[in-house]
Amino acid sequence: MPSIERRRSALLSAALVAMVPAVGSADPITPLIGNWTGVWVVEEQWNSNGPYGVPPYPSAAIVFHFHELGVGGAGYGTLDVSGALSGVVTALSLNGTQVLATVTYASVPPPNNFGQLTATLAQGTIVGRLDEPQTPPPNWIAWRGTVSLGFYAGTCYANCDGSTATPILTANDFQCFLNRFAASSPYANCDVSTSSPLLTANDFQCFLNAYAAGCP
Fold first, then answer.
1. pTM: predicted TM-score of the whole model, two decimal places
2. What pLDDT score was predicted for residue 214?
3. Higher pLDDT among residues 187 and 176, named by residue
């Protein structure tokens, strides 16, 4: 009969083997997992009757938070559109460099209550389009246009309001961060923590540090 120590050693070895992922088991969306921030430049607007409004259309700061299915929340993540709406990423794939994602908005009546991201991943950026259906529900306006996103580590995180005029960083960015923190937006998780609660005083200090560092 094997000794207790030998049995313990065998159990430990088996546990370590189980913790090592099998070759080829990496999640295909791993390069996307994390926080991405950028701007949605609206090129078309539609309501239930057809094209709506007159260009130039509004643009909005947006934040995607991608995670593995069921790890970190519902679906594959969240979308936060500054001053507009939020949604859950209900489908996500990465085929080579091609990104496809579907975002469903709980606050919008179905069936056309979603946005479709079609973009390219390259060197820490996601560039492409975010389009909503051309036949939105009554009393809703669909946005369709280009998006440019950067991983937080490679973009100017402190430019919370997505402004492009000089100076890039102003008091508006502080107010934007406070609003997003109060709304529990994924954007406010500046230190990209994963333990609960996600949003803490550390995120305020992180934002202050990012602001002090300035934008390129």
1. 0.61
2. 86
3. 176
Predicted confidence band of residue 79 (pLDDT cuts 50, 70, 90): very high
Please tell me the distance from the alpha carbon of residue 176 to that of residue 159, in angstroms, as a whole number: 9
Q: What is the pLDDT of residue 154?
A: 39
- What is the C-alpha separation between 216 and 206, in angstroms, rounded? 18
Question: Among residues 155, 178, 206, which one ends one of the domains?
Answer: 155
Bridge partners, residue 47, by sequence: 50
Q: Are residues 81 and 151 in the same domain?
A: yes
Q: Measured between alpha carbons, how far is 45 from 54 in angstroms, rounded to an integer?
A: 9
Of 110, 125, 155, the residue at which a domain comes to its end is 155
Distance CA 210, CA 147 (A): 23
CA–CA distances in Å: residue 96 to residues 77, 110, 150? 20, 32, 18
Q: Are 89 and 103 contacting, i.e. CB atoms less than 8 angstroms apart?
A: yes
Under DSSP, the state recorded for 186 is G
Domain that holds residue 192: 158-216
Does pLDDT of 6 surpass 70? no
The answer, yes or no, to whether residue 34 has pLDDT greater than 70, is yes
* CA count, 13 A, side-chain hemisphere, 12: 6
My answer on whether 42 and 114 are in the same domain is yes
